[in-house]
Automatic annotation (TrEMBL):
The keyword Iron does not apply. Residues 227-481 form the GP-PDE domain. Belongs to the glycerophosphoryl diester phosphodiesterase family. The chain crosses the membrane at residues 41-65, 85-113, 125-143, 163-183, 192-212, 493-514. It comes from Pomatostomus ruficeps. GO terms for biological process: lipid metabolic process. It is found in: Membrane. Pfam families: GDPD. This is GDPD2 inositolphosphodiesterase. The keyword Transport does not apply. The gene is Gdpd2. One of its GO terms (cellular component) is plasma membrane.
Amino acid sequence: MADPPGCCSTCATCLLCPYSCQWITAKKEKRKGLRTTKCDCSWFLFLFCVFLFTLVWLYFAIIILNDFHNFNEFIFKQKKLWLDWSLVLLIATAVLISYSSVLLVLALCLQLCGHPLKLHWVHKVLLILTVLVVAAAFTGLGIKWAEEWKSARISLQATGPFLHIGLVGGMTLLAWPLASFIYRTRNTGLKVFLLLVYSAAMIALYLAPLGITSPCIMEENQLPPKPALVGHRGAPMLAPENTLMSLHKAVDCDVQVFETDVMVSADGVPFLMHDEELTRTTNVQAVFPERAALNSTAFNWTDLQQLDAGSWFLERRPFPTVQSLSASDRYEATKQRIPSLGQALEAAKQTNISIMFDLRPENHSDYQNFVNVTLGVILQSGIPLQQVLWLPDGFREDVKQQAPGVQQVYGRKRLENEKEPLLHVNLPYQDMSSEEIRQYRQDNISVNLYVVNQPWLFSVLWCSGVSSVTTNACQVLKEMKHPIWLLPSSTYLMIWIVVDCVSFLIIIWAFFLLKKCSHRRRPAESETDVLLTKINSLMQE
């Protein structure tokens, strides 16, 4: 089979060697009579599917980065090992997608050059392993982190229009090797099958925008106000979580609400702490090694004040932003102690920031006393009660009676037979659709969604009209003056039509051009075949 114009023998050999793991020159290949068999075509199809599979996983990996800090905390609770597993995820994913991409590019180039697709057995084994690894990753995601499937659906509202353009572009480029293969093969049935599959795929892609919906497809004057920011345990990317330093850093980020978690010590002092154990965010293992595994509520306030609540932040670096802290911030972090609720309320009062908290653990036998003690601290602090947002469901009616000015925030959606209207709800961002957010906004119900760290997600919720978001990345979202993208429906319609038309013209051009090239090669190939036949007959005589 002669090489088409522009594909030199040396280039073809360089492409064939890494794909087949054999140093076969183009001349040797012709002498051996190597051709692409049905088995080779099957492996190429498998390679293409593996590439798509890893590409989908790459998309998921990027999406779940918004929530990956939760995974890091989960692993620490189970194994007492802190590591930024997002780096491991991204590196492994990059290796898999790079490997399958390189092989696919080699295969497409070999096809365009008219050379056989003899995939080496080592590559076959590695491709099977790639499928198994990615399948295991998806399975684990579905079992242990099922809510991320909802995150993926939300992400399509941010990426749908651009994924459509990218898929149309990729499938359009695929027309070149497809046309080359169709004009080379003599199997009519295979030709018809490939053309039908490709045509169906392109028609589906051309019409895909009919099913793409996004709240960010709207006119500029319809854009709702920017959501307020709620600091998740303060500003945990800039300071140790649930400390006074974290509260003040959140204030610097224009955060309107400081979100935290409250526990009550053994001697009745409410303090800020998220985990039931102190091992992740303090040096309790060094100060009280024999008591390190105890619940946080088992320590009295004097013991808690002996713990360092900031050095872990510099040692474990829970976020990449820790590396960029100034020397003064690093020094201040090492001086942080566990703050009491009273200290946090005083800081909130001075900085005019609201405070929202959960009271943990809700299954504690003395939980009612925890509620009473916490309410007592709030009332004694002198903070305006409208600055306090109460999240716990336990003994909520008692709280309403003792402190009627406290704002009640519910961790659920409203019910059909609601006795009194909800004014504030606090939910995971996966639990509310754009339509529900709009409806709640029309009904003057404040909606806060958590935890929102990535600009793409913040943009979708902004366009949807959410009231506020809880975030770890207040310093990032603070700088956003506008959603990442906003398209009027008329503009998106024009982009859709132009992309589809350009794609269609390129596909027609590819098939027409390669058809002309195939006609030019046929006379030369026929003469070569006749010559080889004569030589073969002479050798047999």
